[in-house]
Structure formats: C-alpha cells, structure tokens
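Q: Hi! First time doing this. I have a protein sequence and I read that you can turn it into a structure. Is that right? Here it is:
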Amino acid sequence: MTVQTTTHLNFRGEARAALEFYRSVFGGHAVITTYAELGMPADAPGADRVVFGLVTADSGFRIMAYDALGETTRGIIGGGRTHRENNATLTDQAVFVSLSAATLAELQPLWHALAVDAAVIEPLAASTWSPGFGMLTDRFGVTWSVTVTA
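A: Yes, that's right. Below is the predicted 3D structure, encoded as structure tokens:
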C-alpha cells in the first residue's frame, strides 16, 4: 500500500497568488479552478476565487489551496504568529509545512525564494540535528520548517 499526503492550505482570497508563488519557487505546474468555473454565477461574490488549486512538481512537491467563501480579509485561515524567544519556538499556529531535501545545496535556492517578503524565524544554518535548518513565515502567512535530511 502507498499513502501520500498533500498539504491543503485554506485562504481568504489569496489562494491563486499563493499557488502561483509556490509554482515559481518549486517549479512544476499549477491547476487552478474557480467557483464560477464549477457553476457559481459569475457575478456572485467570490465567484472568481479558487475552489480547487494544486501545484505539483517533478521533485515530488505537492501543495493544494482554496479560498473560503465569505472571508473578506487576506491571508491564510488560522494564521497566527510564530517567533523565537529564549531559544524556543513559540507559536499559536496549528500547522507548519515541513520541507526537506537531501543536501543544503538543494535546499538553499528554495529557502531564498520562500524568504522573499517573509518573516525569518530561524535563519537557515547548521543545527545540532541537521546540516541545515531554518524556519520562516512566508508572505501569505504560511510557516515553513525547512530541513536538510540528516
């Protein structure tokens, strides 16, 4: 039996921008379907928002996203704040996206791309458990835990 999980992010109107950004970072292709494309009247509020979005890349990267109807603010639903204090990570977010690669050389370009307009919580650097670990919250409010597989 094979099991695969895919992170599914829920946004308040920024799913398309987030999916396009992740495709630019990880490569591959995006599939984006709006509520209007699935039958919602085109003039209805939110009809242009994403009901199904998926980015897949040959590397195995997969992420899904959609826009919750009725939400009027921007950002990810359930987003909160994550920061470092007294050598500990403090957060009120329910979920982080974990990203790993076999080498630091593979991970660094992804890190640098995700870090554009992001809040870096822990810079990408060697740690006691990995040749490279870092944590950031990207421009959409998604926190990424980035690790070189030890």
